[in-house]
Amino acid sequence: MGRRKGGSNVFKSNVYFIGAGPGDPKLITLKGHEIIKSADVIIYAGSLVNPEVIGHRKEDALVYNSASMTLKEVLEVMKEAIDKGLTVARVHTGDPSIYGAIREQMDALDELSIEYEVIPGVSSFVASAAALKKELTLPEVSQTVILTRMEGRTPVPQRESLKSLASHQATMAIFLSVHMIEEVVEELLSSYSKETPVAVVQKASWQDEKIVVGTLDNIAEKVRESKITKTAQILVGYFLGNEYALSKLYDEGFAHEYRDAKK
Question: Does 254 score more than 60 pLDDT?
Answer without folding.
Answer: no
